[in-house]
Structures are given as C-alpha cells and as structure tokens.
Amino acid sequence: MFHCSQANASSGVAVHDDCKLKFNELQSKRMHRFITFVMDTKGKEIIVDKIGDRATSYDDFTSSLPEGDCRFAIYDFDFLTAEDVPKSRIFYILWSPDNAKVRSKMLYASSNEKFKKELNGIQLELQATDASEISLDALKDRVR
Fold first, then answer.
1. Residue 102 domain-assigned?
2. Dihedral of the alpha carbons of 17, 107, 127, 28, in degrees to the nearest 10
3. Structural domain harbouring 33
4. What is the full per-residue pLDDT of the chain (144 aa) written as tens digits?
5. The domain that contains 76 carries what CATH number?
C-alpha cells in the first residue's frame, strides 16, 4: 500500500501516492489517455477514480465524469498543428458541475491548487461546470 503525502493545509485533504504514480505513467510513459481522481468518501484523501487506456476516445473520457459530482481529471490531448505536426498537451480539468452538492464543490475548490502542484507537468488547465466547457472544440481552442 502507498503512503499519503502531506495533507493540504487549507482543506486537510491528502493526495494518495498512486495519483502521482498514474500521472507519471500518463506523462512519461504515455500509458493512459486520461485519469480521473475522486475525493474518498470521508473527504480526507484524493484517490484515483478511473483510468482510460490510450485507445479510449474523448467521449469515453467525458462520459466518465459524473453529472452530479466533482472530479479532478487529466487528459492527454493529441492534435495536429497548422503545419500538420503531431503534438500533445496535458490538460488538468477541475470538473465541478452546477448540480453537484455545495460541500463537494467547496472541498474540490479548496483542494485544487494543492492537488495541481502534486502533478508536475500539467500544461493547460480548465475549470468546467458543464459538458460544453470541456468539449473537444474547447480543448482545440486552448492549444492554438
């Protein structure tokens, strides 16, 4: 079992070591397309929720985000530049839907900065309250 890193001073939430391990697998080894992270049921620790392999689609990723609850997510976005050069950007997404419980939104918002710092190598960031804010077009707009 992995040990937790230090608890977040502002929210008291710890980050499970597995979160960084899986992020490094996505970033360095390109083993995953996406990772979602969830607060455990006691609200004390951020843990890995779901992992999508490299073959999963963007729709698979967005449908893995719950309609009524918050998540942290990482998405490795592949695209072509205007010169047709293949590139990739790692997106960090704070998913906080409008219909999520207020306590959940507050807990995720207060843990956001600390969690982001644990994942070294994030290139772009989005905060989304509904699916339109994380559409494929929204990502494409950010990488131009």
1. yes
2. 0
3. 14-143
4. 334 444 444 557 899 999 999 999 999 999 999 999 999 988 899 999 999 999 999 999 999 999 999 999 999 999 998 899 999 999 999 999 999 999 999 999 999 999 999 999 999 999 999 999 999 999 999 997
5. 3.40.20.10
